[in-house]
User: Fold this.
Amino acid sequence: MRPGAFRYVSAISLDEVLQNLSEFGDESTLLAGGQSLIPLMNLRLARPEVLIDLNRIPGLAGIDIVGDELRIGAMTRAVDVVTNSTVAGSLPALSRATAFIGHPQIRNRTTIGGNISHADPSSELPGVLAALEGSVTLRSIRGERIVGWNDFIVSTFTNSREPDEMVVDVRFPLRTGWTFAYDEVAPRHGDYPLAGICAGVQIVDGVVREMRIVAVGVSDRPVVLSEVAQASVGRELDETLIKELSKIGREELHANGDAHASSEYRKWLIGTLITRILGNFALESR
Amino acid sequence: MTASIDAHRPSLVGSSVRRVNDPRLLTGSGRFVDDISLPGTLHAFILRSTVAHGRLISFESGESPADIVLGPDDIAAATEPLPFVWIAPDQQHLHLPMGDTTVRYVGQPLGITVARTRAEAEDAAELVEMTIDQFPGVADSLAALEADAPLLYPDHGSNLAVDFHIGDDPDVLEAAMAAAPIIVSRRLRIPRIAPIPLETRGVLADWNVGTETLTVWMSTQTPHHVRDQLAHVLRLRIDQVRIISGDVGGGFGAKEHLYPDEVMVCLASIRLGVPVKWVEDRNEHFTATCHARDAVHDARLAMTQDGVFLAIHTKVTGNLGAHFSNVGTGPFRVSGLMLPGPYRVVNAGAKISGVFTNTTPTGAYRGFGMQEAAWVRERLVDEAARELGVDPLELRLRNVISSEELPHLTPTFQEYDSGDYARSLTMVRDRVRAHVPIVDPNPRIRRGIGFATHVEFTGLGPSVMQEIVGFRLGGYETAVVRMEPDGSVFVSSGVMGMGQGIETTLAQLAADCLGVGMDRVSVHLGDTAQAPYSAAGSIASRSMTVGGGAVVTAANTLREKILRIAAHRLEASAQDLVITEGRVCIKGDSSVGISLEELAEYSWLGWKLPEGETPDLEVKFVHDPSNISYPYATHAAAVAVDLDTGQVQIERYWVAHDSGVVVNPRIVDGQIAGGVAQGLGIALFEKVLYEENGQPNSTTFLDYLIPLASDVPDIVMDHFETPAPHIPGGMKGVGEGGTIVAPVAIGNAIAAAVPEIAGLILETPLSPGRLWELLRIGGLINE
Assistant:
């Protein structure tokens, strides 16, 4: 399959992108890494009138700690997140989650902004952003706004970006005193997960002060497992609690079923992943 | 990966010569269909049905800007129906009509648009208006046999296309079953598989208006067969059609015949008088190229209280898809023929039911019915061992045909030739015994080792046998071996290279026979204007046995002629001469001799020849073998099963294998490893999914998973060599064995790891989701 005809704009500055977005709005699509868009265009499921290529614009990639946030430029490639020492030092869960994206060839092209914007419910990064309560920066010729993950990611392949806006960076809060981790089960390494978990915990004097836990690959967007988190507060993270939380997670979740995994199986996997991740937290906190 | 070879020979045969094509292929100089460009080439897009069952009531090309649009009526008017080659008993459909307006599967080709680029051809196709009156559809073979199922061919009165028995008479078999003390009976399923060659199908058709000839570059395993079919369908003389098959990126059976969409591309070139190219894209491949397998087996193994096998039988319900493929019920039939495997049984047979459904037709795929037979038989044997409470490997050894009993005629009329089946079992057993199992502190990780063994039907085949089974293809191969005036050697054969390395191994055979180095031999395949006629091409693991056997005899005959000429020149007796390192010399005295260059130069001049000898140094030999050749193997897999995720890890894999004389151990290792990888895919990942009504759900690599390099374990391989007694050179086929046995070796390993669910392992793929369901039924998933 080949794409239908489209107008191609190879932008050389962010201003040029924003001008084009302002002019063409809904009729335009931004090309970042192209790992999801190009197949959709080849299948003619995506048919933009105007394709605005972001790949030649300087300054859109980069990884920096600004205040208590890890800011990743929209055009930063997945491979650069996986290999970056700042990410490894400040938010290893993000390095690990990003390493689960596809295969090396795909990670060489995939961008962080593109991945988050695509809002694929099976993708790892929206789950990490949700667990951390992160946000994205949207810019247009009208100005700039910062939107939290919960408002940005709407449902399958749908975000709340206005047609004239572009995601310029993704912001992952660095929570002092917290430990985060990501794990998933996929049919083969690099596949979309059948289920994944990003969890974070703050343990003080052996007792859980706060927990965030998010499931991916089970619904139309990342699912915050708030009952699991609430049940953990004020408790010692031991085998009994982990078993209890795993059970709550399985009961709380409404998981989708498909040809690869039934709803019941996905719920079971979420319980398994909760047990494994929290078990590691318990080991580390000793 | 390790390999060991029994016999070491100081010759090219038996040595791991590097593959002659690899430098070219690995440096991007391969020439696949899509790499070939002719000036003025236009590009085609095939219009396909998106409906599983219905009638096309209108096809309007409208305002389409295409150079040409052909619909079903244009195609039907310009062509003859495409004949099938393997016809089942009482099969009523003998050919496939072109331009059929009854739609029976999603992906069925209905028309073609041609434009300057592929994208423009697709644009043009969007403007074609097709109206299809939709009917209810059915995808599952058992559902299609129910009374209220929609009928694909109402005139036929039923979706049951054909129904026949093979092997022992059904009454005899039922009597044997009735008298048996123990019967192990199971319903086993083998899922629908897509062949997935790296290179999809593709055609570049070039009709020359002046000479009225059609040259077609095509990715095919069977250039002559395709040529014959194409000439027939397009109403051309065979000499007007030339097929050139260059580099082929895998076939696995899917490219063994002509497809209707390929005819459409050729017809478009004839109409336009310019070259037209079409390369199937991956999305198309999932519905447009034959699938395979998709069989339900109701199987029984009868035995004594002591575990002595008495009889084996299966009732095969085979899903043919929307129409008979080129080979039709062939794979289901071969499942029955090879069901007894390496075991001594008194009675054996199968009932074969071929069923029409609204799915892509099923055809040939690596293993051709034998993977199904192995899954059924070797699972039954493990289940029998479980019921008897004996070791599954010991039960196999108790029943395996001994080397003294060979040759052995099975109740399904297979005359097994040579070998030592027990040795492959004990060799793997000993390897496994030496394996130190991993000790895991996690009780939710289970480990187990499974075995499976088989005998395989390779090297199709005696032409007379193909007549008996209604397979309308000659079973012979022809080789032309010529020493050129400069002493270099030209080899031509009708078999086809498709990545299996046959160009290298045929050169090794010829070089060895003629006493020259590999660098003096070139092998020419795939061009019907040059290659000798091959009816069947490269299918059924026959290239090395039948094609290689032809090269051995032709090269040896040429060698004899060279020795006669040299004897005349050297005033010696031919029996006293040897060819070594490019020279013919007196045995034991290399100072007296003549170089092949000089000998060839003078021979082609017609000078200094013995009386009655012709000047040409060329031999053509037609090799029609007297029997199938039967390699065999035992595989074992060590797996870890994670009870909390349903995931299976294959930690170790062993193969002991005898495919007769091994011409190139590295290539044989590669064939087995690739086969095991494909078998692993069947075991754990692969299944083409359809909705009940025939809408396909596996049309991308997101939905249809194949193994990645990291999923394939290290494989420990032991080869031993029992020459095929009836094949010049002694080779047996090696293309398919890995795929045949691997799924059930892995299935048996999972059963061994988790005995609680052993009786539930009846169907592949054992994907995490599916295995988890079994674990839950088995009581291993507790909240």
